[in-house]
Write a structure and sequence with these properties.
The chain is an alpha/beta fold. It is built from 24 helices and 22 strands. α7 packs across α22 and α19 runs antiparallel to α20. It binds adenosine-5'-diphosphate (ADP) and magnesium ion.
């Protein structure tokens, strides 16, 4: 149960004075949550200095000015269109205050003629005269505290002003409790961390821009709290998995032996090591939960199959799940080709398998006549029953979160689970998103692979590229030409795929085709078919070719305005022409202006084909998130931490979490209790529930 000390932070925002239903829902959207705590996590992005500094004569256009003024006269509007104006002055200059839609009454009370007031607001210079519409603050001269001297500025949304938010924030901060310390005293000292409560208060009361530094001790303290909560909860789930009963799967090796004899190559060291890692989990009497990473072409298929054969040797069944029908089909083709030779039965189950064929397949599955089932998520519907499923491989599962993984076991199968992904994920993201799993990585490609020759050049050399292409396309080769947008937009001068297509058509005639995201699925397929069978030699496209296209004869990739693509995207695109034993060429053409970040991206592409290195670089250049497409996948983003800035803290938190659980597996000690509070604070208490369940 949530500790009572945290209750006030989990009250709904509507409990604060000044928050009604309508305003509450505006805030809910802005804060991405409806609790007092969500307000506390909403940190200022800048500060406004409202200390008096210069007289009016020194006021600057478009800047905040604060100072003491005398009220000279009121100029009420002569008609409905005019604003209400009030002339004020200090010893150096006059200023006109301008009010729209305001009643003269209240203004007469606030600004009696002859009175002195402190005002603060944005100066506008209009016809050489100073003006201020709707001052942000008006204070009595004997009550300067009616106005904050240094005002934090928060991210806002339509309908929510900084002033309103500031008022709510004061109420919210007043209930932030002084929580019992969960960190080690040594760490606090070494990092100069303030307490949790102090850190929150400091961050909301910056004294200058310098206090907004993401590396300030107060910010780092909260980031560390957030990372530790994340790492601790994942480590708890992982620990629990380890102690969950599973079955021992240790085959006699006969099928694996046969498979290896049939292969035209020997396994790489990395493949052998990874197979051993997976099998050591399978041999052990607990449930496996492991992530396998390997770039495109690193040979994951054999690794998957070898480990599935280990299960089949034990008389059990194995299943592999792909994210799309096309990929399931591809897997089925490669697995069944290898399995048929060694007498292992495979089958494909997707939504397309219907009627009698489906009934037969399900029957065979139940009888145990099928050893290995390949399919989409259709595998996990209730009508599917296995005779004895012991091992499940999930391909490209990074779209799933920890919860879904836990749900798999809720199906009641005592399965070993392997998650396989070809998208290189930086170490930090593996930690934060897959920290509940063991981890294996194929970090070596089969020998003899030829690198893709990558050239970077300005768009001005497009004519050279076209004439080189003319020569190349006379041989067996085919090429992709990738453009960033479909239609020329007036504002952004992107070269449009349609325009490029038309100009290339003048040179290559009907050898060139066009494919883009706005075409119908059937039209796209028709064009792809023509490219596959060689009718088309050059395919102009937007980035639609990124996913699931495999045309062996295509060995040239030209990317226009490559500076506008992310690194992960460029890597995926280039992966399309990696043919292994043939040489291939990637040409990255850039336009101007070329930002420093874009220049570095292109350099990285030129220097390496290592997807992991590229992913790390990508993370550095633009932060995490997009690599995994987190927005779509529903991964929880961090509230305070930024993986590209606070990487060091994450690594420390990962070690810290492991150490904590080593000493205090069930978080029973006094510090353990405090750490439980931390988990509740960051809403990672799902992990605590596993204590009771397991
Ligand atoms: P991935 O699924 O990791 O992208 P695949 O398993 O499809 O890669 O393998 C890519 C290609 O490399 C396949 O043609 C496969 O037969 C071949 N291959 C796999 N392992 C080796 C190896 N050790 N030596 C040579 N070729 C290999
Ligand atoms: Mg594969």
């Amino acid at each position: 149960m949530r500790p009572s000390i945290l209750y006030p932070l989990f009250y709904p925002l509507e409990n604060l004075s000044g928050v009604g239903n309508r305003y509450g829902s505006l805030l809910h959207n802005l804060l991405d949550g409806g609790k007092v705590l969500d307000l506390v996590w909403h940190l200022p992005i800048s500060v406004i200095d409202r200390r008096c500094s210069v007289p009016l004569s020194g006021a600057t256009d478009n800047k905040i000015w604060t100072g003491r003024v005398r009220v000279v006269e009121h100029l009420p509007p002569q008609n409905k269109k005019q604003p209400y104006r009030i002339c004020v002055e200090d010893d150096t200059e006059q200023l006109t205050l301008v009010f729209f839609k305001t009643f003269g009454d209240s203004l007469s009370k606030t600004f009696p003629v002859g009175a002195e007031k402190i005002i603060s607001g944005k100066i506008e210079i209009f016809n050489n005269a100073l003006q201020m519409s709707h001052p942000d603050y008006v204070a009595d001269i004997d009550k300067p505290s009616q106005m904050p001297e240094i005002e934090p500025v928060y991210p806002l949304t339509a309908g929510v002003t900084n002033k309103m938010l500031g008022k709510l924030m004061r109420q919210a901060l007043a209930v932030v409790p002084n929580l019992p310390e969960w960190h080690d005293a040594n760490l606090l000292q070494k990092e100069n961390f303030p307490s949790f409560q102090q850190a929150v208060l400091q961050l909301h009361h910056p004294q200058s821009e310098a206090d907004l530094n993401p590396q300030s001790p107060a910010r780092r303290r909260l980031v560390y709290d957030e990372f530790l909560a994340n790492q601790l909860s994942l480590a708890i789930v992982r620990e629990r998995m380890k102690h969950q009963k599973g079955r021992v799967l240790q085959g006699n090796g006969a099928l694996k032996q046969k498979l290896l004899q049939n292969l035209p190559f020997t396994l790489t060291n990395a493949q052998q090591r990874v197979i051993a890692e997976i099998e050591s989990d399978m041999y052990a009497p607990y449930r496996m939960s492991r992530l396998l990473q390997g770039d495109v072409g690193s040979g994951k298929t054999i690794v998957a199959l070898m480990t599935m054969l280990n299960a089949v040797e034990c008389g059990a069944q194995a299943a592999i799940m792909a994210p799309t029908e096309i990929l399931a089909q591809q897997h089925f083709e490669s697995f069944s080709a290898l399995c048929n030779e060694i007498g292992v039965t495979t089958a494909l189950l997707t939504g397309n398998v219907k009627g009698k064929a489906r009934q037969e397949l399900l029957q065979k599955l139940q009888n145990g006549e099928i050893n290995i089932l390949i399919g989409t998520h259709a595998l996990f519907t209730d009508e599917v029953t296995f005779k004895d499923l012991a091992y499940v491989i999930i391909d490209e599962q990074h779209r799933f979160g920890v919860k879904q993984r836990l749900n798999l076991s809720a199906k009641g199968w005592l399965c070993d689970v392997l998650v396989m992904t070809a998208t290189p994920i930086p170490r930090t993201l593996v930690l934060t998103q897959f920290g509940d799993m063991e981890y294996s990585k194929i970090d070596e490609l089969p020998a003899g692979r030829k690198p893709v020759a990558t050239t970077v050049m300005p768009l001005t050399r497009i004519h050279d590229v076209v004439s080189a292409l003319q020569r190349k396309l006379q041989t067996q080769t085919q090429a992709y030409w990738v453009c960033p947008l479909v239609e020329e937009s007036e504002k952004i001068d992107l070269s449009a795929a349609t325009e490029r297509f038309e100009s290339l058509q003048k040179i290559f005639g009907d050898q060139v085709g066009l494919i883009h995201g706005k075409m119908k699925e059937s039209e796209k397929n028709a064009v792809m078919e023509k490219f596959k069978n060689g009718q088309l030699k050059l395919l102009v496209s937007t980035t639609v070719i990124e996913v699931g296209v495999n045309v062996p004869a295509a060995t040239i990739m030209i990317i226009e305005h490559a500076e506008r693509f992310g690194l992960a995207q460029l890597h995926q695109l280039r992966g399309r022409i990696k043919r292994g034993f043939e040489s291939s060429n990637c040409i990255l053409m850039y336009g101007y202006p070329l930002s420093e970040v874009s220049r570095e991206r292109l350099n990285t592409m030129k220097q390496t084909e290592d997807g992991f290195l590229i992913a790390e670089e990508d993370l550095k250049l633009r932060g995490g998130g997009e690599i995994l497409g987190t927005r779509q996948s529903g991964f929880s983003n961090f509230k305070l931490a930024d993986l590209s800035l606070h990487n060091d803290l994450l690594l420390t938190a990962a070690k810290d979490a492991a150490l904590i659980l080593q000493k205090d597996r069930n978080l029973q000690s006094e510090r353990g209790q405090n750490l439980r509070t931390l988990l509740y604070l960051f809403e990672r208490d799902d992990a605590i529930k596993t204590y009771n369940a397991g």
